[in-house]
Design a protein that fits this description.
With 277 residues, this protein is an alpha/beta fold. It is 42% helix and 15% strand.
Length: 277
């Protein structure tokens, strides 16, 4: 499949892979910073595809997770990318590690966000009150992003497991990027992901072969992919640095974007030998 892809900036390529539900547009918290002319040590060229079954990369048929990697290889060939960094959030981080295993000569470094090679969640059972509150908060947030009433309802909805800091900025991201991504995620994409998880997805024994520098970022209160499972992966990766952010959850890039992007920038500066043209 030819993936719909948002491209920004110029410089060394960074492939930015979204999570579930998600889209390339939902990666703007990363791509806008990385592609900016003000980016230090240098601006990058970001490629943010809608994965198969997400966003504008529609799929009419069921598929398996490995199809995502086939699609990414087609994208790499399409844009003649010879070497790149890969940034992946949640599902995107899993695919980033898979791509590094499949194409070690291509991937020069990994930025892993709220992800794990053996993803483990701690999400409690969902009640009808949770679903009702989430629906109300989501609809109101589309009309008035970040309003105090929306945040009050959101703290009693499923949003409480996605964000720990109920700030207007986090709710603006939920309205602008989270809601469209959720609505554009197909049942085939969900089936592919949850099928792999039910089958006991575990690449811990394999990721120790990934020899490139890596940065693992995680939220201490993450219930979807726990910080413990992210840290477990970081310990196995041979050259991995870690930033674990307190009082944040799975959508921590939308809670603390400035702090997170500063840490990414610092890591890129320290590992400039991986990406300089």
């Amino acid at each position: 499949m030819r993936l719909h892809t948002q491209i920004q900036g110029s410089g060394f390529p960074i492939l930015c892979l979204h999570g579930h539900p998600g889209s390339g547009r939902a990666m703007s918290v990363f791509t806008s910073a990385l592609a900016s002319e003000d980016m230090l040590p240098a601006p990058f060229k970001t490629y943010a595809p809608d994965l198969r079954g997400y966003g504008r990369s529609r799929s009419a048929y069921a598929f398996e997770m490995t199809r995502h990697l086939d699609d990414l290889e087609a994208l790499i060939a399409q844009y003649q990318i010879e070497k790149c960094l890969v940034l992946g959030w949640s599902l995107g981080g899993i695919l980033a590690m898979e791509l590094a295993l499949r194409r070690p000569e291509l991937v020069q470094g990994l930025i892993l966000v709220g992800t794990a090679a053996r993803p483990v969640g701690s999400h409690p059972p969902i009640t009808w009150q949770d679903n009702l509150g989430t629906g109300i908060a989501g609809i109101l947030n589309l009309a008035c992003p970040g309003h105090a009433l929306v945040r009050a309802i959101g703290q009693r909805s499923l949003f409480r497991y996605l964000i720990a800091q109920h700030t207007p900025l986090a709710y603006e991201y939920l309205a602008k990027e989270g809601a469209p991504a959720y609505l554009q995620t197909s049942r085939h994409a969900a089936s592919a992901l949850f099928g792999a998880i039910r089958a006991g997805y575990n690449r811990l024994p394999d990721v120790k072969r990934i020899g490139v520098p890596a940065l693992m970022l995680c939220g201490e209160c993450d219930r979807h992919i726990t910080a413990e499972s992210s840290l477990e992966t970081a310990r196995v990766l041979p050259h991995c640095e870690v930033r674990c952010y307190p009082n944040t959850a799975h959508l921590f890039p939308w809670e603390i974007p400035q702090r997170m992007n500063a840490d990414i920038r610092q890591w890129l500066t320290a590992h400039s030998d991986c990406w300089q043209l």
